[in-house]
Amino acid sequence: MVTATFHFYEELNDFLPPARRRREFSVACAEAATTKHMIEALGVPHTEVELILVNGESVGFDRRLRDQDRVAVYPKFEALDVTPLLRVRERPLRTPQFIADAHLGGLARLLRMAGFDTRYDNGYHDREIAEIAAREARIVLTRDRDLLKLRSITHGCYVRAVHPPEQLREIMVRLDLARSARPFSLCLVCNAPLHPIDKAAVLDRLPPSVRDSQQHFTGRDVCHRVFWQGSHWRRMQQCVADAQAACAAAGAES
């Protein structure tokens, strides 16, 4: 029998039972067990792991464990604070795309509101989410640890917060998304780009108070939704601003 000693660091401890958090502990492993197999058997999804050291040496998920191995497992590291450095571009070249599981519909809407392409359907099964993520290079967002353990998922985030506004802040801080945000550029319902709409074309679809008070509208032909800058828009704008401020604060602390 193979026995290995594990130590998980920082937020990876959230996945462990209390008795194993922030301390070394030894467990019995199968003869051919890899680091990935044991890390996930202990409850930590592989998508949450950035670095594995076995006996002080950096290894991959396919490293087979041997008797008396000492394994240190680290989460994704915080982004380096490059704010004081000159950036050659005002915005990043790439903007991440997401797919959210059935329990994160509120987060999906907020991510769309912030301008992030986010696939969501509460009818998606786990395997379908994994297939879409692989095919379209999307980051899987979920509160289901078992989903993130699927081998085909290479990029995913376990969402710790429960309420959508806090979830938005968590994801934006964790992935440093402040500069990538394009608020109100995507439809909250169908995820397609919004475009300006002439007021006269939608006049019969507007509440009387909106007809009198608003002049600028956006919408999408696919779902026929129309958006304007009312009180709901201002609340959503504040939600995005709070998330961006949280990103800035996190950068200042790192």
Task: Please characterize this protein's 3D structure.
It is a single chain. This protein is an alpha/beta fold and 254 residues long. Among the domains are: 2-75, Beta-grasp domain (Ubiquitin-like (UB roll)); 98-182 and 246-253. The chain contains eight helices and twelve strands. It has helices at residues 35-41, 105-113, 126-136, 145-148, 164-174, 199-202, 208-213, 231-253, and strands at residues 2-8, 25-29, 49-54, 57-59, 70-75, 98-100, 118-120, 139-142, 156-158, 195-197, 217-220, 225-228. The chain has a five-stranded mixed beta sheet with strand order 2-1-5-3-4, covered by helices on one side. A four-stranded parallel beta sheet has the order 7-6-8-9, with helices on both faces. The longest helix is centred in the C-terminal third of the chain and has 23 residues, at 231-253.
